[in-house]
Amino acid sequence: MAKKDGPDGWELRGNTIHKALENHLSNKGVVAEERFYKWIDPLLDCWLFNDCEVLAIEYAVCDPVKRVGGSFDFLLRTAQGTLCLGDLKTVGSIHGVKSRKKADAQLGAYSHMLIDLHGLRVDKCVTVVSGPGDVAVKHSDPEECHCKWLEAWDTHRLMQPEW
User: Domain residue spans in the chain?
Assistant: First the structure.
């Protein structure tokens, strides 16, 4: 959290890069401070976003039983026809692109909610990691993501005080 705030903090960088991807996928112009284009250019050139059909961007989902919700970054059909649910993560270094862990539990929650709310099953979950000068697409199996989500939920529940 010490590096979150300020003009060089990760919060501003993350929000800027997320907005750039959202605008790109919405066919809007991408406008950002020049210093962020080290992240933006490789991200927007990523093969995943070429010739894809965008189905949802920043889409809110919830689980009314568990009383949790969130917004996933994108749902798209790739040029190969794969239904792909994705989350974007930004990192501050090239090393971070390689070492950043996949967002499997988070993607599993979103995938689970898509099934419950819309009966929609995705073919692939991806964590897209954007760093200065590089981008990585880290693939995950939706069923493995569901398992990670349920493990995380069980851990959370066990840590709650008894009423």
Answer: 37-158
The answer to whether domain 37-158 has CATH 3.40.1350 is yes
What is the per-residue DSSP string for 21-77? HHHHHTT------GGGHHHHHHHHT-GGGTTPEEEEEEEEEEETTTTEEEEEEEEEE
pLDDT digits (tens, 9 = 90+) for 106-154: 999 999 999 999 999 999 999 999 999 999 999 999 999 999 999 999 9
**Count of alpha carbons within 13 angstroms of residue 6, beta-carbon side:** 6
- The conformation of residue 91, written as its DSSP 8-state character, comes to -
The residue whose two tokens read 């099934």 is 115
User: What tokens appear for 8 in the block?
Assistant: 């060089």
Name the pTM for this structure: 0.91
Separation of alpha carbons 7 and 16, rounded Å: 11
